[in-house]
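Researcher: Structure prediction, please.
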Amino acid sequence: MKKYISLFSLIAVFFIGMQHTQAQELERRSLDNTEEKQKKEHHDNLIQKHNGPQSSDQIEKKAKLRMIEATTKTKDDVRELDEVLSLSADQQNAMHKVLLDLNLKLLLYGDEDTKKVREAKAPLIEEANQKIIKVLDDKQIIVYKEHLEKKSKN
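Model: Predicted structure follows.
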């Protein structure tokens, strides 16, 4: 009889061990699923941040921020050109329009400095330079071209 009780106890311990192992496996799977869900949510959040906000209010705010950034950069650029070229008020206004248009277009490309982006920006910059040259007189054109050369070396 002792043999049967020992054998029964051994089998019971074996089954209890199996159930415990299965319970641990299920718990591990649920934790893995939870971690996967958290990783997916984190990934989705990163994608949403990268792609930008989705609501119209947020899109409008983003557009306003771009406009402010472009306007600030334009003012700085016009101020720099005025120091170098001694621009008249009409020339400053014309420069502001040209450079604002350019800066808004360049903001769409972001801060990336890849070859593809540089190639895409080049025609925009060249077009803006042509418009700027039309506004300047002969002496200013020479100084402007020298300024561009100095700037490109930096």
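Model: The mean pLDDT is 82.
Researcher: Thanks, that helps.
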